[in-house]
Specification:
Length: 310
């Protein structure tokens, strides 16, 4: 049987599970609510065992909400660490999956996984330096620099940068750590609480809420552009399901940069610089498949090297 790769995308409200081999081959997609680990993890295991009854599973890819520990030398490598979700704090994510299935496991923060998916099959194909940003329940950003996902000491937390708090906006912000950081002012929950709606998508297109949202996100685009000089910025997430919002962000990003950087990305080719995900809602799931494939290949290489050395 053909090797299949399990992809698991973990968010604040749900885990999305699927299996496949590429962006055009995603099967058996299921959603499992993000509850306590003792409820959620067995449900995911049950899904994987069900897939294994019909297919040969070669690897598992985990794109997980952060913060997580990505340092291979760390004693807590593979753990979810200081997440606001208290039940998941200091949880050995990779360890649980390796112990249960004895399979190669790829592990990344969720936005880096989405960036990887976009790099392999989506809007970042052929690029070496780009950013993937999601604006939804939270705001996060993953980056590829020089062809490698950006880690450093931990991983990027682009949603928690500070942006100018608009003087006309009296809303305090919703971030539990920083209150009025980017996530605190521009995430889905911030819009719901500020405008007293159940979903940001309920807000009419002509409401000034969207001008404020575009301003906050454009400040972020300017900061990311100045700090990382990406070839492209990809913006996804539930809040971006407003067709008009992306154009507002582009216009304001250009205005805020004020021609300081005179590059075609920020002038004549802005429509190719700030773009939507090429994989639509599947960036994270495709990233998980890519992570699983990478982990499987690395395991194969180690096995071949060990045989050659014996």
């Amino acid at each position: 049987m053909e090797n299949r790769f399990i992809s698991i995308e973990a968010g604040g409200t749900k885990f999305v599970c699927a299996h496949g081999t590429n962006a055009d081959d995603i099967q058996d997609r299921v959603v499992i609510p993000t509850k306590h680990p003792e409820e959620t993890i067995p449900a995911i295991f049950q899904y994987i065992y069900k897939v294994a009854q019909k297919h040969t599973i070669a690897g598992i890819g985990l794109g997980i909400f952060g913060p997580i520990d990505l340092d291979p030398k760390s004693a807590t490598h593979g753990f979810i660490t200081t997440t606001p979700k208290k039940a998941w704090q200091n949880f050995d994510m990779v360890g649980h999956f390796k112990h249960e299935f004895n399979l190669p496991v790829g592990f990344e923060v969720d936005v880096n996984a989405s960036a990887l998916g976009e790099h392999r099959w989506g809007s970042a194909q052929g690029l070496t330096d780009f950013i993937y940003v999601t604006v939804g329940t939270g705001i996060g950003g993953g980056a590829m620099v020089g062809g490698q996902l950006l880690h450093g000491a931990l991983h990027a937390e682009m949603g928690h940068i500070m942006v100018p708090h608009l003087p006309e906006d009296e809303f305090a912000g919703v971030c539990g750590h920083h209150q009025d950081c980017l996530e605190g002012l521009a995430s889905g929950p911030s819009m719901c609480k500020r405008w007293q709606v159940d979903s940001a998508l309920e807000i009419p297109e002509d409401h000034h809420a969207w001008e404020w949202e575009a301003q906050y996100l454009a400040y972020a685009m300017m900061n990311y552009t100045l700090c990382l000089s990406p070839q492209r910025i990809i913006i996804g997430g539930g809040v971006m399901r407003q067709d008009h919002l992306l154009d507002r962000i582009k216009i304001k990003t250009q205005a805020y940069l004020n021609e300081y950087i005179k590059h075609k990305n920020l002038t004549t080719e802005i429509d190719q610089y700030i773009v939507r995900p090429g994989l639509n809602e599947n960036s994270g799931i495709c990233g998980g498949i890519a992570l699983a494939q990478n982990a499987w290949r690395q395991a194969q290489q180690k096995s071949h090297a060990a045989i050659a050395a014996s």
